[in-house]
Design brief:
The protein is mainly alpha-helical. It has two domains: about 100 residues, Winged helix-like DNA-binding domain superfamily/Winged helix DNA-binding domain (Arc Repressor Mutant, subunit A); about 45 residues. It is built from eight helices and two strands; from the N terminus they run H-H-H-H-E-E-H-H-H-H. The N terminus is likely disordered.
Length: about 200
């Protein structure tokens, strides 16, 4: 007995969802708003060394922090879109200490925290525009990340895939059911295309 296409004329729904999910996770051939790779050699650093020094110094001016706290706070400020690697943060912290712009203090936990010095406050004040630009970049990144967060769409696609599988794999599924599923999907496609 030959099986009918489970969604009418539109093709295999499971293959379509696999392709769409892959595109959302990895971006299309050009990459895209869902955070996929954009090809070799195109990844750029968020900050140059001088800017990262200013960002870290600004964050320890707000409150004493250790390296992990700094990484986590930058990730929070960027809306989860960017977190500097420990291999960049810790050497930059050492440089701030060597420059006399920050100093280490014992904390309640096992890690020492870094605090700003008066020289560090002067350094930030002298470069207030650069600090504002660097911090603004994190805020802007958070806004872009919020606009392009595909997690709700991925969740909805997963739910739809499961519902399709459950509905169409039942032994009692009729041709009429398949056609109704296809009609519902076609209607959803039309609504999405009109957005």
């Amino acid at each position: 007995m030959r099986h009918h296409n489970s969604c009418g004329e539109r093709g295999n729904p499971f293959q379509a969802f696999r392709e769409a999910t892959h595109a959302m996770r990895h971006g299309g051939p050009q990459g895209g708003p869902f955070g996929g790779p954009r090809g070799r050699g195109e990844r750029r650093r968020m900050f140059d060394g001088g800017e990262l020094r200013l960002v870290l110094l600004k964050l320890v001016e707000d409150q004493p922090r250790h390296g992990y706290d700094l990484i986590r706070e930058i990730e929070n400020l960027s809306g989860g879109a960017y977190a500097p690697s420990p291999g960049v943060v810790y050497p930059t912290m050492t440089l701030l200490l060597d420059m006399g712009l920050a100093e280490e203090h014992e904390s309640e936990g096992p890690r020492k925290v870094m605090t700003i010095t008066e020289a560090g406050r002067t350094h930030l004040a002298d470069r207030a525009d650069e600090v504002a630009t660097a911090m603004g970049r994190l805020t802007a990144l958070a806004k872009v990340s919020e606009r392009t967060d595909a997690a709700p769409v991925r969740r909805a696609m997963h739910n739809l895939k499961q519902a399709l599988h459950d509905c169409l794999s039942r032994e009692t599924t009729t041709r009429e059911t398949q056609l109704e599923v296809a009609r519902i999907l076609d209607e959803a496609v039309g609504k999405i295309e009109r957005l």
